[in-house]
Amino acid sequence: MGIEPIGLVTLAVGLICLLRGSGPTVIAFSVFPVLGGAAAVLIGSTGIQPGHLFLGFLILSTLWLHGDAATVTDRALRSQPFIWLALLVVYGILAGYFAPRLLEGTMDIIPLGTSASGGSEGKIPLMPVSGNFTQAVYLIADLVTFGLILSIASTHQGFRHVTFGVLAFGAANAFFGIADLVSAGTPLADLFSYIRNAAYTFHADEMVAGMRRVIGSWPEASAFAGASMAVVGFCGTLWICGRHSAISGLLFVLSSLLIVRSTSSGGIAGLPICFAILYLTSLFRCGGSTGTRASLSVVLAFPIAALMLGFLLALNRDLYQEVYRFVDITILSKPASLSALERGTWNASGLANFWQSYGFGVGLGTVRTSSFAVALLANVGVLGTIFFLAFLMTAVILPRGTSRTYEADVGLAARNGCLCLIVGALISGSTVDLGLIFFIMAGLRAANPAGSGLPTISPDRAG
Fold first, then answer.
1. Do 5 and 48 contact (CB within 8 A), yes or no?
2. CA 217, CA 237: separation in Å to the nearest integer?
3. CA-based max dimension of the chain
4. Secondary-structure percent of the chain, ordered helix, strand, coil, rounded to 5
5. Which H or E run includes 407?
């Protein structure tokens, strides 16, 4: 067991935040999940990420130093989404322990985590694997995160702190993306070794369409694009609603460009879906006395811009060829690539395991897939999938609060951030765990601060 330099930084920031109060602790906790390729503490081949290490400081701050454990527990247990998520976690842990043992040797799997050497296509007979433990730990951390953020954001001040924290996450993600973009051949590239120290395979020097892929602080381009899609959904919605317009608009544009520049097939394919979500949001947010200029501009300008882009591509053959070549390399020809064929094998094997287990799944963290939907079915089966969908519906989808207030607009942004993250996960997600930032945004969305609305400057009006 050893503490890495980034772990020492995490501990130092945690201690400083505890002394400064709950606000800095919440904001810092929201930022640390951006270090998705870092290990703060190494225990053999297993690493504890900075975000999960900092969760301990958030627990100390919320339950002891700057909060009340009884209040936090009461708010969590009164929350329907928390109960659904708790059921998923409990079922996942039980399934992860019993299913690989009860069904041991009855089918072949492509394992998640370390295991015995696989045979053809990396398959091994079903057995307990290290992923059963690590994924259980991650889901418990997700549950704790959701419960704490839900409680913190139930106050006006806490709601703002979490909002600023998610914005800070977006800023940090964009910073690392830009730094990675310009770091090749410079001393800056050596600094990334301190935050790319986890026991993952890093794809930092891969080339696509003649460009080096951008991975930021994540192990691969798809993970970076997935986090950036969450930022696109969250910050794009805030800009549409006229909330924190300067920073949210800038982060929306930067994150969108970085997704394209990452050359991630999942990110490029999912980005138009994210834009469609934002356009629908603009349709419902414009008009009336509380409509915003940004939402009206999007509704009117987007179709015109799409037409102009179509005409430009039709009239400029060279530009059309360049755009088509890029899309062909990143999306159209991707299904024939070796990586896509491998990922297709993961999904086919996962679906086969789902049917072979009679719909119960083979246990949390047992098999590797390349789609979040397949990961749910293969690992936790029909029942676990129902628990997650119930959580998603009650925490993220269902409307709450008075519309077009500050908290309603931020909640809408959190909802769209969650949905955009899920879009990326459905395309290339390999596990049931969606990451801490998803559950931070879900907790923000599910929270309902007391009172009719937060005191804040009115959004930019449409007139």
1. no
2. 24
3. 67
4. 70, 5, 25
5. helix 406-428
CA distance 329 to 424: 19
Provide the CA 150 distance to its chain's centre, in angstroms. Answer: 17
Query: 341-374: b or e for each residue (b if 16 or more CB lie within 10 Å)?
Result: eebeebbebbbebbebbeebbbbbbbbbbbbbbb
For residue 289, give the 3-state DSSP assignment.
coil
What are the structural domain ranges in the chain? 1-67
The residues, ordered by sequence, that sit 6+ positions from 76 with a Cβ below 8 Å of its Cβ are 82, 147, 150, 151
Strand partners, 124: 109
Cβ–Cβ < 8 Å for 431, 388 = no
* Per-position pLDDT tens, the chain of length 463: 789 999 999 999 999 999 999 999 999 999 999 999 999 998 877 889 999 999 999 999 999 988 888 989 999 999 999 999 999 999 999 999 999 999 999 999 999 865 545 555 688 999 999 999 999 999 999 999 999 999 999 999 999 999 999 999 999 999 999 999 998 778 888 888 899 988 887 887 788 877 889 999 999 999 999 999 999 999 999 999 999 999 999 999 999 999 999 999 999 999 999 999 999 999 988 877 677 888 899 999 999 999 999 999 999 999 999 999 988 888 888 777 787 888 899 999 999 999 999 999 999 999 999 999 999 999 999 999 999 999 999 999 998 777 789 999 999 999 999 999 999 999 988 899 999 999 999 999 999 886 534 444 456 554 3
Asked if 457 and 247 count as a contact pair (C-beta separation under 8 A), the reply is: no
Integer Cα distance of 260 and 172 in angstroms: 18
Instruction: Return the number of other C-beta atoms located less than 10 Å from residue 246's C-beta.
Output: 8
CB 170 within 8 A of CB 251: yes
Distance of CA 30 to the CA centre of its chain: 12
Q: Which residues contact 68 (CB under 8 A, 6 or more apart)?
A: none
48: DSSP letter = E
Q: Which residue has the tokens 């696509």?
A: 208
Beta bridge partners of 154: none
Q: What is the DSSP pairing of strand 108-109 with strand 124-125?
A: antiparallel
Place of tokens 């998640």: 112
Q: Whole-angstrom Cα distance, residue 313 to residue 316?
A: 5
Query: Do 118 and 110 touch, CB atoms closer than 8 A?
Result: yes
